Amino acid sequence: MRKRISRSTVVLALFLGIALLVFVWLVASRPAGAPAAATPAPSPSSAAVVPTGVPSSGSSGSPAAVTAAPGDSGVPSDTGAPIATDSPSPSSAPTAAATVAPTPKPTPAPTPKPTPTPAPILAFQVAIDSAGGHAALTWTACMFPAGGGAYLVARSPDNAITYPLAGNDAAIDTVGQGGPPAYVDGAPPPGAADFYRIFCVDSGKHLLAESFPVVSFKRPVGVLTLTVTAKPTSNVLTWSACQTSHFNGYLIARSAASNLSLVPLVRGTVKAATIGAGGPHTWSETASPSLTKLYYRVQCTVDWEGKTILSAQSDARWVYSAVKS
């Protein structure tokens, strides 16, 4: 006689079979290598998520198995994956991007303008001659710009004449562009020696060209007429007046030799006397008992460009005199 199986045993076997099927399905559906998901404790504030294909309840009224798929909740599982909940995760709120001000572009430094190359200073020729004992200058013409220009005539006691003028350099005349390229310098006295240079300048006084080389001119020494008279007790000198500008006086030279030197006095020449510019044109010296042949010369001196120079002189005149030399 067969043993009868109880009804409760059948229900238990059926429940175990269903549980085994659910377990097999979970194992088959999870990714390879992923650990099994832990079954969370039910929470009153969250709804369970039933995977698709699993019945929510059995026909026998048994409660449905509840499992959480990985990533369905914000509650950490044993695998580290969150479990989905009805309330949004605080970390899911979008974060506003920080506003970054654009970096201003550096302002490039202005390119400096190139320094203009000055036009070369041209040279032109000057000729110098004597016009009645004065310096007569002539020169070749300059090429002037549209604005015009002029010739600047410069004089100096030395040959270092540059533009702009400096030191002893003097601008003695300005000849316009349309004027003749010529000039006669009548100011220096006889005996003066000077140097000359011509500069071409535009209307703004900028140098365009200069004469080369610097030229010089020495004016001849003027001539005085001298008369020497031997008297018993004196020798008397009379001479013509010095006709020159910048005159400062006369110098009377005496010597026992015929070649009386010019200024300055050398070779045994004695300065017997000086007479100012406003003085007489005669002079005498007292005689002595001894008879001597003496030579006299009268020299005219002038002040020119800071120096005393010889401007005119007489020939040497001699007398047998009782004046002691």
Poorly predicted ranges: 42-81
Round the mean pLDDT to the nearest integer and report it.
77
Give helix % range.
under 10%
Structural class: mainly beta
Q: Could you state the order of secondary-structure elements as H and E? A: HEEEEEEEEEEEEEEEEEEEE
Tally of DSSP helical segments: 1
Largest sheet: 6 strands, mixed
Beta fraction: 35-45%
Nearest-angstrom radius of gyration?
65 Å
Number of strands: 20
Distance from N terminus to C terminus (CA atoms, Å) equals 199 Å
Q: So what's the overall shape? A: rod-shaped
Give a description of the structure.
- By secondary structure, this protein is mostly beta strands.
- It is built from one helix and 20 strands.
- It has one helix at 7-29; strands at 75-76, 82-83, 122-124, 126-131, 134-139, 149-156, 170-176, 182-185, 193-202, 207-211, 215-218, 222-224, 226-230, 234-239, 247-255, 270-276, 282-286, 292-304, 307-314, 317-321.
- Strands 3, 6, 7, 9, 10 and 11 form a six-stranded mixed β-sheet that branches. Strands 12, 15, 16, 18, 19 and 20 form a six-stranded mixed β-sheet that branches. It has a three-stranded antiparallel β-sheet with strand order 4-5-8, with no helix packed on it.
- It is rod-shaped and about 205 Å long.
Element layout with pairings:
Layout: H1 7-29, E1 75-76, E2 82-83, E3 122-124, E4 126-131, E5 134-139, E6 149-156, E7 170-176, E8 182-185, E9 193-202, E10 207-211, E11 215-218, E12 222-224, E13 226-230, E14 234-239, E15 247-255, E16 270-276, E17 282-286, E18 292-304, E19 307-314, E20 317-321
Parallel strand pairs: 3-10, 12-19
Antiparallel strand pairs: 1-2, 4-5, 5-8, 6-7, 6-9, 9-10, 9-11, 13-14, 14-17, 15-16, 15-18, 18-19, 18-20
